[in-house]
Structure formats: C-alpha cells, structure tokens
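Supplementary material to the annual report.
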Amino acid sequence: MQPERWHLIEDLYHSALERAQNDRDSFLRDACKGDDELRQEVKSLLASHDKAKNFIEAPALQAAAQLLTREEIEGQDSQTLSSGSAISHYRILEKIGAGGMGEVYRAHDPRLGRDVAIKVLPVAFCTDADRLYRFEQEARAAAALNHSNIVAIYDVGTWEYGTPYVVSELLQGETLRACIQSELLPVRKVIEISSQICLGLAAAHEKGIVHRDLKPENIWLTSDGHVKILDFGLAKLLPEQVRAGQLETLTQSASTKLMGTLGYMSPEQLRGQPIDQRTDIFSLGAVMYEMLSGKRAFQGASAADTISAILNRDPIELTADNREIPGVVSGIVRRAMEKKASDRFHSARDVAFALAAGGETKALESPREPDSAHSPWKLALVPAIVIILLTGIWLWNPRNFRSRLSTPASSSIRSLAVLPLENVSGTPDQEYFADGMTDELITQLASLNNVRVISRTSVMRFRSSKQSLSEIAGALHVDAVVEGSVLRQGNRVRITAQLVQAGDERNLWAHSYEGDVTDVIRLQNEVAGSVSENIKATLHPGAQTQRQSEGQLAQQTPQSIPPDAYDAYLKGLYFSAKLTPDDMQKAFDYFKKAIETAPTFAPAYGGLAEAYCWATAMGLLPSQVALPKAEDAAKKALETDPNLGMAHHSLAWVNFAFKWNFPAAEKEFHQAIELNANNATSHLWYGMFLAWQNRPQESLAEMQRAKQLDPFSSITNGLAMTPLLTSRQYSQLIDSAGEALQSSPNDPLLLWLIASAYEQHGDLAKAVDVQEKQAILFGADLQKTNQEFDALRRGLAEQGERAYWLNREKSASPSGDDPFNLAVVQAHLGKSKEMYASLEKAYAFRSTGLVYSIQTEPAFDRYRSEQAFRLLVQKMGFVQ
Amino acid sequence: MGRGDQDVTDLLLLWQEGDSAALERLVPLVYRELHRTAHNYMARERTGHTLQTTALVNEVYMRLVDFQSMDWQSRNHFFAICANLMRRVLTDFARSRRSIKRGGGDALLPFDEELFGKSDRAAGMVALDDALNALARIDERKSRVVELRFFGGLSANETAQVLGVSVETVLRDWKLAKAWLFRELNRNEDAHAT
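Predicted assembly:
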C-alpha cells in the first residue's frame, strides 16, 4: 500500500469517527469522491472499530497471567481416553472418576492378568522435570509402604507428553466424601475410620512420607470394611505457588475446584512454611470434624475466607452441636487442629492411641445411634481394644525388641542419661507424670551395675533444652542418652523412647509402648528392659552385667497399681525433689495418699521414707519427729520389696542420724549401693556418714561417685564438700564452695560451708561477713541485722575472738537451738563445765549436730583426751 | 530477583544487539516474573480492586530491570525492548499451547466470543502476532504502538514518550490499528471457516 493512500485512509477514518453514526456514510461518499475501494476500506475499518470494543484493550500480560494461573491449577483439559486405548501395556476399560488430580480409569494389566486403577495426571503436572522426578521418588516410596490402610501402588511412569500416571489396586467401595454426604456417621464409626487413617499415616510418616492433601476425597472405604488412603505424595506435584499458599490468587472457577483441598490444609501449609507429618494430623482433624458434625471445619464463601478461617479461627465447638459427642473425642479433634503444629499431636500413632483410649470411655459404651444394617462396617462393632492390638500391643513381647534394634553400637555404653521425657499429653498438669516416668526409668536403669546412670536432678535441667543430644551427653559425660515422650489420655499411657549414642547421635534403638496406667510398672519395665538389653549388647565381650541387676529387672514383676495411687506416688516424687518446706509437705501428703490407695506399693513407702530423711538432712524437720516415721515407712517398703534401694539408704540414714547404730547404718548403705550402684543419694548419704565418722578418704570416694551420677545438683555438689570440712581442708573448701557460689550466689548450703570453714579456721572476721549475708538471705530485718553484725565486728576488732564467742553465747536461744551448738561456743570460751552440760542435753535430745560433729569439730580437740568426753563418745556408739 | 537485576539488563542489551543466546536465558526469567505477577494480578482482581494495568506491567519490569538507575531515555529504550520481549514470550507461549492440542488458551485474548467461535483460541494470539507484522509493513509506528500498549502494557503517555510523539498521536494510531487488526483477524477467521 502506498503511504499516501494509507494516510488518506487514516484521515478519513478519524474524521468519520468524529461524526455521528448516521452522518458517516454521507460523509464518506462525499469525501471519497467516487473512489469506492477507498470508501469500502474506511467503512470496513469503522465497522471493525464498532465491534472491536474491548479487543486488545487489556494488556496481553493480563490474559496470559489468567491462563498461566488456571493452567497450573487445573491442568489443561485432558482428553478422555477411550476404551481400548492403552497406556504403556495397560488396556483402558472405562473411566471411573475424575478430579483435580487427574482422571482415573479402570484398566487391565495383561501381564499379571488383573484389573487395576490408573490415574492419569494433568499434563501441567509434568512441566517441571525436577518436580516430576521427586513425585516418582515419592510414589515409589509410597508403593514400598505396603500397608493395609494405604492403597497399594503397583507402578508409576510417564506417558505421552510426559504425562505422569500411577497404577494402583482397584478398590471396591466409595470415598469417605460419598459416605458422609449420604449420612452422618455414628461416633464409633468415626473413631474406627479415623484410627485406620492414623495407622496408614503413621506407616507413611515413619518412612518420612507426608501426604499433604488428606481429605475425604482421598480416603476410600472399601466394601469389606477397610480404610485406604489414596494419592500419597501427589500433592507434591502441585505447582509451587499453590502449595506455597497463594491460593487466594486463583480465579474463582479454579479455586472452587480447589476448595476441596483448601479446607483441609494446615496453617503452615497455607503460609508456605516447611511442613512435616503434623500437617497431615491437622488435615485428619479437619476430616474427623466433618465426619462428626457433617459440616466442614473451615469453610468460607471464598478461598480467601477459608484461608482466613484456617489461619485465624477455631471451628465451632463440636460439642456445641446438639449431637452428643464425647468430650474426649472432641478434645482429640481440637488438638489435632491446633493452629501451631507444636501444639498438635506429634504423631499419627499418638492420635490413634488417644482415640483408642477415648473409645473406651463410658460415653461410647452405649451407642445412641444404631448401626445401619447394610453397613459394611463390621469392624466398627469391635471394641476399641482391637485398635490397641492393631497399633501394636505386640510390642509388649520383649522378643520383638531385638528385632527392632538397628545396627549395634560401635562402642560400648558405660554411662547413660535419661533425659526428661517430654509431656505430650497437651496438658501441663501431666508434667509430673512425665517426670515420674523419667524418674522411674532412671531408677530401673540404674540397677545396671556397670553402667553409670545420671541422676534425676542433673537431667532435669535439660528439660526442653535447645542443646543437641551430643552436647547434652558431653555435659553429662555419658556415652548415650535415652530420650522420649509420654502421652497420657485418661488411664491410657503411651511411652516413646529411644536410645541415642553420644557423638554421632546414632539412634541405637527406638520404640513405643502402650498400656494402662494400672500396668505402668510393667511398661517401665519393658522400656528399661529394652534399653538395658541394648546396652548390654554394646558392652564388649566378657563384660557382663552383674547377676544382681538382671535379677532385679526380672524380679520386678508387673503388678497392678490403681492409677490414682500411681499418680499420687509420682506427684510425691515430683514435690520431694524440690526440697522446700512447702513442697516437702505436699510430697508427704501425696505419698501417704498413694499408700492409702495401694497399701502394698513399695515405692510409695520408699519415697515417703526418703522424703522424711531429706527433710531432716536439710534441717526442715527435727530427727525425733521425722526419722521414726522414716524408719516405719522404709521397713514397710522392704516388706513388699526387699530390694528397694531407696528404702535401704533411708534405713541407713535413720540408723546413723537417729538411732546412732553406726554398724547397722553402714550395712544398710552397703546393701543399698549393692542393689543399685547408680543411686546418687545412696552414695551421697554414705559419703556424709563417712565424713562425720571422720573417714575423709572413703567419704571423698563416695562423694566423687555421687557427683558423677548427679553432676548438676547443687545439693549434691554442696554436700559432697562435707569431707573437706571434717578433714579441715579449709582453704580447699573455701575455694571449691566459692567457685560453686559463683553460679548460685545465694545457696544456703554453700554459705554455711564457707562460714563454718572460716569459723573453724579462726578467720572470724570473714565468718561474720558470710553469716551476715546468710542472715539477710533468711529474711532477717536488714537494719537490725546490720547493727548486730557491726557490733560483732567492733567487739572482734577491739576485744578479739573471745568477744565473738561471747556474743554467740548470748544470742543462743536456750530452748530453740540444738544444745550442741551452744556446746561448741562454750568449748571455745573454755567453759568446760557448761560445755559438758550442753553435750549431755544434746545427747538426751538425740541431737543431729552431736552425731554429725562430735568426732570432727576442732573446738573439742582440747577436751578429747578428757575422760568425760571419751565416755560420751563411747556412749554414743563410736568406736575409739 | 529483587528490585531489578543487572543480569537481566545486560541480557536485554545483548539480545537487542542480536545475541540470540541472550534471549534463551531471558525467557525463563521473564516467565518467572510473569507467573509471580500473574498471581498478584489475580489477587487484586479477586479482592475487587480496580486493576491498574500499567502498574501490573510495571511491576514485572521493575522486577526485571533496574530502572531506578537509568535516565529516562534508557528507560524508554528498555520499555520498548521489554514490550518486544513480552510479545515474543506470549506469542511463543500461545503457539506452544496450540501445538499441544490438548485444549487451548481459553480466554487468552479478550476477544468477543462470537469472533472465533469454538476454534482454538490460542490461535488468536498467534494470528495477532502475524497481523501485527503485516501492519508493520504498512505503518510501523502503529504496529509499535500496539506492541508497546498491548504486549508491553504501557499507558498512552508512556507509549508517547517511548516513541517520541504526542499522546494524541498515540491515541489516533491506537484507534486505527485496533480496527485494522480486528478486521485482519476476523478476515482470517472467515477464511478458516470457509
């Protein structure tokens, strides 16, 4: 076309457009002056102009964006394969379903002579080679699962255009979606279906496979009553943006199709955060909610509304509905759907377990809804205990433990720490239960005599620690750690434990145990037995565990303890470990409660006895009051269980501190340690006994052992310095205690040790400083205390030592204090007559100070050779 | 990619200088931005906000090229290059969808429904590309106006700046080009139908 002509056309076109529609024809006729071709050209352009309207008005990008998005979500329209066509060697028979994830055909596999299901995925799924590769990997892993609650995958592959397909078993029955659309399921059926889903999920999760898209459409109820989960890992094929939570960007039509999936997605999935098995647990919760209520847990008018509901809102309480849903079941659903993954059940097995426990509640024993006669759900009638069987009651059989062992450890395990078992029950008030389990496990494992097992107080500091296992193992100087969790639901308990080698953090063994609270001793035995079996396997040949320990583990035959009694016992342990007056009182009450409910439960008596002893050792209760009770409890414990270590060391303490029967005390200490070489308290108390008996070398050895077993306990570390005081190694004591004081500057025990060291050493000015600090820490009036101690310092400076002791004598209360303390002051002042009187008084009161210090107190040195003194010592039972 | 990317800028220049390998490297980057922007676009549409189409396109460009550090002449230059690149990418995209023959680019072009009937709509984009080439042979500037506005997503003002003409000229060019192209596509469709 000539440019001139083109310009002419252009001018006429614009001029015509400026005119009204009706005038254009006449205008063109005039303007074209008979050039018909020109007139037609302009006329046709004007006609196009009128029709074009929105043509190319919106940028191409906008339309392309729309297309790109939709294509990714829906895949391109796939053509339906006709009967008789083939994919690989499979012959297509008929189309049996279609969905967002592709189309499903019934097909025949001529090689194996069976009918199969083939799912052909949308071609859009195959655009990313990497994604496709990962899908194949995952599908193959899922195929390897071979679990009765997961649909069996026979084959995966790609077909023309790289379209992926999955060949699976052909199922008879219906999807859960179809099932819940037609009827509201009885609660027991919901539990049964959910439990089976849990088992399938658990099997996959244990292999590291997360479903990612669990929803009623992906759960199949077969005609013979099984639940099968479909499409494991397929969701991984979804485009990144969809998975990454940009669903609000979908077009309406695409999002409607995806709403099915959307309503079951976890918050972390929607946010595009990393996901793990707990995402499936959320989806499971949403599915359960729908089964129970007939309504979706999260449904908004649009995708954005649904997303907002999942992220921000809790579904309407299940129990708010007029339908009767047991609280325990709605609780399980609520916990599964917690917004924070860490607040949910940690594993599908935990859900299965909780369901089994929940299914036993009274509320379910009398079903309100009759089972429909045509229902294939015969299994639903089987009591929930079947689920326990399914989840693995076989674990009870110790023979199976060995089969679960992974490769043996490369090095032997000679020391071990049981980290605080995590309370995963979802309620903080079960903390004591998890702690109690930890404690019991420590006690049980401690009976392995040639393995050092770290004590409770030292492991408790690692509760919820962020440190790695090998860091913790390093801090405790152990070769291996046991860690795990406790889940309690009503009277059901589930313990998960694993043994991990320090250093390479290799998992040597892991297992779960389930049972009733009444059987909890047996559970602990099983866990401890498995762990010890494994440890024994790591000991080099020739080294064998002592018969004693094997005997003990075997002897602790499972006995039935009422759950209430066991609870009370664990609470007693929990409070007695705190060593404060209030907590000790609570501990006594709980132990007594446990004894009331279970009068033959030896550990409850043992706990009570030990608590009484500690109370006197810490100066919380006078010996005369507490130790007869301790003796009584210890003896009762030993009647039922003669091998209870803590009863023996409690009895030893009574014999030492109260009965002054030193040979009996020593015998009981030996027996306690023989029974359980890993009990830090046994070594610690024996060490104190030896120190006060003026046997510092032996004492130091026991204290060393106690510290190894309980390296982070301030009480153990403080009391372990006793032999330094009794053997008068003052500068070493002041150094050690001073060092320990840096991490706990207000520790009363350390302050007492330092003050005593200064006082005995004769450095009274420094003793006064420390005593002042002690007084203030114990809540004395600040101003008054300062005045008193200033007077003391003045007296000391002006009149020397004597002023100090005179002041002490003056301030000693004649009724309240142990007369032994006054005797020490009087010894310093040289008031021999008064001193002997005070000692006699102390003897009559069975003073603990007297029995502790008579042999080692330096103030008595100048009297030791005197007849009266020697008689006293002899009278007390000391061998000269 | 962040706020602009020197690599992309360099690649665009290389491509403009005739380095075809640069285009191969550019296309995936542009695709990525397209996807991202597409989702943003849909989000805005869904929430009922009036869509600022130029803002949308600018968003893609801003991500691709560091316009901040360019003077306005370079910017115009790059807008032009980008529009051309976009035309290429989008046409290729439509062409690839057409060849798969497994359903097509539904609503790829906001053409009137009756215009293409039930035929393969991705073809519309490809046909438009051809028609635009034909228009360029008659009136190159009008072809470029369409390229900048439709493929490049530029406003009339920006188009005027890039081409160094008045806005009125751009609007006039647009009005004629649009009718001309529409007729051209319609004619092809008629030809197919017969």
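Residues 72-100 of chain B form the longest helix (29 residues).
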